[in-house]
Design a protein that fits this description.
Blueprint (H helix, E strand, L loop, with lengths): L3 H8 L5 H10 L2 E2 L4 E3 L20 H15 L11 E7 L4 E5 L9 E5 L4 E5 L3 H9 L22
C-alpha cells in the first residue's frame, strides 16, 4: 500500500489518478506480461544514493531514465530532464515514463526503447497507453514489436 501523502511530499508532485487506480487494482505489475509498474516510495532520484536508501524502485529507475535522456539527447521532445519520471520497465530494458508537465491527468507517456536508444512520445496517460498497447490499438503503433502488443490485460 502506498502512503500517497508522504510519497507526493517527497517527490514534490501529485501522481496521476489513473496511476493510483491502476496500482490499487493491479499492483506492481502485470504478472503474465513482462512489465513492472514502479510503485512510488519516499526514495526519489535526488535521495536514491543516500546511505541506507533501499535499492531499486521508482527513484532509482527515474535516475536511470534521466541519465539515458541526457546521454541520448532526444531533440524531438520538448522537455527538461527533471520533467521525466519513470513509472514502468520491462525485461528488454525499455523504460516507461511521464513528462510531468501540466496537470497530472494530462502527463504524456514517453518510452525509451533500449534496443535503438530512442524516445517516443505518446499523447495519452499511463492507463490509456497500456490499453492501446495491450489491445494492439494503432495509437501505440510504435510498440508493435513489443511482447505487450496485443497481449490483453488480466486481473490478478
Amino acid at each position: 500500500m502506498v502512503h500517497w501523502e508522504a510519497v507526493q511530499t517527497a517527490w514534490k508532485l501529485v501522481f496521476p489518478p489513473d496511476f493510483k487506480a491502476f496500482l490499487a487494482q493491479y499492483g506492481d505489475g502485470l504478472s503474465d506480461l513482462d512489465l513492472s509498474v514502479l510503485v512510488p516510495s519516499t526514495v526519489t532520484p535526488d535521495t536514491c544514493d543516500e546511505p541506507g536508501a533501499p535499492k531499486g524502485g521508482m527513484g532509482f529507475i527515474t535516475a536511470d531514465a534521466r541519465a539515458m535522456w541526457m546521454d541520448t539527447k532526444p531533440n524531438d521532445i520538448d522537455a527538461a530532464v527533471g520533467d521525466l519520471v519513470a513509472w514502468g520497465a520491462d525485461g528488454s530494458g525499455d523504460l516507461y515514463c511521464w513528462l510531468t508537465q501540466g496537470a497530472p491527468e494530462d502527463w504524456p507517456v514517453v518510452l525509451f526503447s533500449h534496443g535503438d536508444d530512442t524516445w517516443t512520445r505518446f499523447d495519452c496517460g499511463m492507463t490509456q497507453f497500456l490499453c492501446r498497447m495491450l489491445s494492439a490499438d494503432g495509437g501505440a503503433k510504435a510498440m508493435q514489436d513489443s511482447a505487450l502488443w496485443g497481449a490483453g490485460l488480466h486481473r490478478r
